[in-house]
UniProtKB/TrEMBL annotation:
Belongs to the helicase family. RecQ subfamily. This is DNA helicase RecQ. Its cofactor is Mg(2+); Zn(2+). GO terms for biological process: DNA recombination; DNA repair; DNA replication; SOS response. Signal peptide: none annotated. It catalyses: Couples ATP hydrolysis with the unwinding of duplex DNA by translocating in the 3'-5' direction. The keyword Zinc applies. One of its GO terms (cellular component) is replisome. It comes from Thalassobaculum litoreum DSM 18839. Its EC number is 5.6.2.4. The lineage of its organism: Bacteria, Pseudomonadati, Pseudomonadota, Alphaproteobacteria, Rhodospirillales. Transmembrane segments: none annotated.
Length: 417
């Protein structure tokens, strides 16, 4: 059904069966319906799909949705069809003949949403056909994949800039995490340099944020664990060797711990992961290879023995703690040597000067969070594009404002408290 002239609330009830919009959805939908290029950054589970599905239903044209995974496309198509919306996915797993049916539906004007993988969309024939049919808008889900510096770069997303130009339609881009540099990249490549940007809901108030100077990581970790016996947690280390050594050191102290990194035998790796999810009170010492797709609500702490790769990576990694909403502690150790090493990585990466400049700026943002005399959460959320009005009261610097040379920053804190 198309709902020209009806209000989004009606479509929300009648088509999707929901009573009200979740925070942010209505604003994003209004921007998309107004034909604006739009970038929406909303956490996982916030309801990003509805933000483009509802305009597609209301407008009655054809919305092309780029999505990186066949399983994600199929899930959405299945539930849209259950709601009576004509939707289809075009991908390499389709049975012969399916694509022909999809094109017929598109030409007849029935099809509201066409899900498609980026590499398929880049094929000239497909773009010609879509131009002929006429497309209302382009939607790019998981849009951070277009940024080389994002945490999941996909080269095939780069062709989407050309797709947008070719179709000549507004773009709506969605992602769960994107710092300022990634958002810039997305807007430049997908939205012709200008878009309405919405950033919602990054705050995780139950996480106690702590950052300390790195002295002796293992000793600092053991001290941290002293009054956390029996809690489940993740310790992130930079190298496989550090992972092994840290896990062994914990075991020697009688703390149940297992290693996890990409160099382990796959069977050992998945056994360790299963133990972490099912057992209580196990510590997993891991490289960044650990965490994707792990659903354990009662992780009580995340400990970084080294500075993470970026603010986004830091946010993702600490976000694995306290998913149950109960208090959890995240502790990072940072050393200036870590930052210097990260800078060298960037300089030696062979990236263009522009990209190196952006990456250095991002490191500075991360360093700023480490060194701030103000509230850590304010610094973190500001970097993620979601300013927090008041100091949070649940981070180390709020609890114990650091001494500064001129005393100015703590004084401001007292005044604003
Ligand atoms: P995201 O892509 O942001 O991670 P999804 O689009 O997959 O999230 O939505 C997560 C869940 O929230 C889905 O089950 C969806 O049906 C549901 N949902 C979305 N919007 C609403 C709403 N306004 N009211 C109730 N449930 C909603
Ligand atoms: Mg999604």
């Amino acid at each position: 059904p198309a709902f020209p002239g009806r209000c989004p609330e009606t479509a929300l009830h009648d088509v999707f069966g929901f009573a009200e919009f979740r925070p942010g959805q209505r604003d994003v939908i209004d921007s998309i319906l107004a034909g604006r290029d739009t970038l929406a950054v909303m956490p996982t589970g916030a309801g990003k799909s509805l933000c483009f599905q509802l305009p597609a239903v209301m407008d009655g044209g054809l919305t092309v949705v780029v999505s990186p995974l066949i399983a994600l496309m199929e899930d959405q198509v299945r539930s849209l069809r259950l709601q009576g919306v004509c939707a289809a996915a075009m991908h390499s797993g389709n049975a012969p003949g399916t694509n022909g049916d999809i094109w017929r539906q598109a030409r007849s004007g029935e099809l509201r949403l066409l899900y498609i993988a980026p590499e398929r969309l880049a094929l000239d024939g497909i773009l010609d056909d879509l131009s002929d049919i006429g497309v209302t808008r382009l939607v790019v889900d998981e849009a951070h994949c277009i940024s080389q510096w994002g945490h999941a770069f996909r080269p095939d997303y780069l062709t989407l800039a050309r797709v947008r130009e070719r179709l000549g339609v507004p773009t709506a881009a969605f992602t769960a995490t994107a710092d300022a540099a990634t958002r810039r990249d997305i807007v430049d490549r997908l939205c012709g340099g200008d878009a309405r940007e919405f950033v919602f809901g990054f705050d995780r108030p139950n996480l106690d944020l702590r950052i300390a100077e790195k002295r002796s990581p293992v000793k600092q970790l053991l001290a941290f664990l002293e009054d956390r016996k029996g809690e489940s947690g993740i310790v992130y280390c930079l190298s496989r060797r550090a992972v092994e050594e840290t896990a062994a050191a914990l075991c020697r102290q009688g703390i149940p711990a297992v290693p996890y990194h990409a160099g382990l035998d796959p069977e050992v790796r998945s056994a360790n992961q299963d133990r972490f999810v099912t057992e209580d009170g196990l510590v997993v010492c891991a490289t960044i290879a650990f965490g994707m797709g792990i659903d354990k609500p009662d992780v009580r702490f995340v400990f970084h023995t080294d500075v993470p790769g970026s603010v986004e990576a830091y946010y993702q990694e600490i976000g694995r703690a306290g998913r149950d909403g109960l208090p959890a502690t995240v502790q990072m150790l940072y050393g200036l040597a870590d930052i210097a090493q990260r800078r060298r990585f960037v300089d030696e990466s062979g990236a263009s000067e522009d990209q190196r400049r952006i990456e250095h700026r991002r490191l500075n943002t991360l360093l700023g969070i480490c060194e701030t005399a103000g509230c850590r959460r304010q610094a973190l959320l500001a970097a993620l594009g979601e300013p927090l009005a008041q100091p949070c009261g649940n981070c180390d610097t709020c609890r114990e404002p650091p001494e500064t040379l001129d005393g100015l920053v703590p004084a401001q804190k007292v005044l604003s408290a």
